Amino acid sequence: MRIGHGFDVHALVVGRKCIIGGVDIPHDKGLDGHSDADVLLHAICDALLGAVALGDIGKHFPPTDMRYKGIDSRQLLRHVVNLVREHGYVVGNIDATVMCEAPKLGPHTAAMCVHIAADCGVEVTQINVKATTTEKLGFTGRGEGIAAEAVCLLQPI
Ligand SMILES: Nc1ccn([C@@H]2O[C@H](COP(=O)(O)O)[C@@H](O)[C@H]2O)c(=O)n1
Ligand SMILES: C[C@@]1(CO)OP(=O)(O)OP(=O)(O)OC[C@H]1O
């Protein structure tokens, strides 16, 4: 078994989509970044890469590389899952938390889990996504950005 942890933050700005866990969530602001800025999938990618000691997302998909401009982060996640498999592991389970005051994520977490499970090639019961506010404190509390944290366990093939 291997354990991994990931953390990511993206700024909330006007004129961008708010895509979290592959779900396009209606909101007056969206997440800024080189890719689609899916903060949750980035934290999960980092957890998976960490578990097999392969560095981090920026090492594999440099933000200076135009191939990744606006890319759907589900493509990045599928690539990372393939790397994990090449190193002899499959996803056991993933647990993640997204931190934001708004939008409300509760109505969307089930759809996020379906996307993540499909991209990881596992059952939806192996994936959990939670949401929390930070009680109006800090950059997430002020609505300046969204943070996400993920942990995973990998099982040897
Ligand atoms: N963006 C969010 C934040 C929270 N939720 C749900 O509300 C519950 C209570 O949040 P607290 O920060 O007050 O603990 C939380 O457990 C989530 O179910 C949400 O849907 N979207
Ligand atoms: C995902 C990548 C892809 O170029 O770009 P960003 O959307 O800026 O996201 P970040 O979480 O900063 O990770 C870096 C990059 O790998």
UniProtKB/TrEMBL annotation:
Required cofactor(s): a divalent metal cation
Q: Return any one Pfam family short name.
A: YgbB
Positions that bind 4-CDP-2-C-methyl-D-erythritol 2-phosphate: D8, V9, H10, H34, S35, D56, I57, G58, T132, T133, T134, E135, F139, R142
Gene Ontology MF: a single term: 2-C-methyl-D-erythritol 2,4-cyclodiphosphate synthase activity
Report the co-factor binding details.
Binds 1 divalent metal cation per subunit.
Query: Per the database record, which ranges form the 2-C-methyl-D-erythritol 2,4-cyclodiphosphate synthase domain?
Result: 1-154
Q: Name one GO biological process term.
A: isopentenyl diphosphate biosynthetic process, methylerythritol 4-phosphate pathway
What residues correspond to the site Transition state stabilizer? H34, T133
Name the domain of life this protein comes from.
Bacteria
The UniProt entry, under InterPro entries, shows: MECDP_synthase, MECDP_synthase_CS, MECDP_synthase_sf
What EC number(s) does its UniProt record assign? 4.6.1.12
- The residues that hold a divalent metal cation are D8, H10, H42
| Annotated pathway | Isoprenoid biosynthesis; isopentenyl diphosphate biosynthesis via DXP pathway; isopentenyl diphosphate from 1-deoxy-D-xylulose 5-phosphate: step 4/6
What Gene3D superfamilies does the annotation carry?
2-C-methyl-D-erythritol 2,4-cyclodiphosphate synthase
Q: Which UniProt keywords apply?
A: Isoprene biosynthesis, Lyase, Metal-binding
Q: Which CDD domains match?
A: MECDP_synthase
Q: Which residues form a coiled coil?
A: none
- Substrates-to-products reaction catalysed: 4-CDP-2-C-methyl-D-erythritol 2-phosphate = 2-C-methyl-D-erythritol 2,4-cyclic diphosphate + CMP
Q: Say what the protein does.
A: Involved in the biosynthesis of isopentenyl diphosphate (IPP) and dimethylallyl diphosphate (DMAPP), two major building blocks of isoprenoid compounds. Catalyzes the conversion of 4-diphosphocytidyl-2-C-methyl-D-erythritol 2-phosphate (CDP-ME2P) to 2-C-methyl-D-erythritol 2,4-cyclodiphosphate (ME-CPP) with a corresponding release of cytidine 5-monophosphate (CMP).
| Subunit description | Homotrimer.
Q: Which NCBIfam families match?
A: ispF (TIGR00151)
Q: Which family does it belong to?
A: Belongs to the IspF family.
Its protein name is 2-C-methyl-D-erythritol 2,4-cyclodiphosphate synthase
Ranked from the top, the taxonomy reads:
Bacteria, Pseudomonadati, Pseudomonadota, Betaproteobacteria, Nitrosomonadales
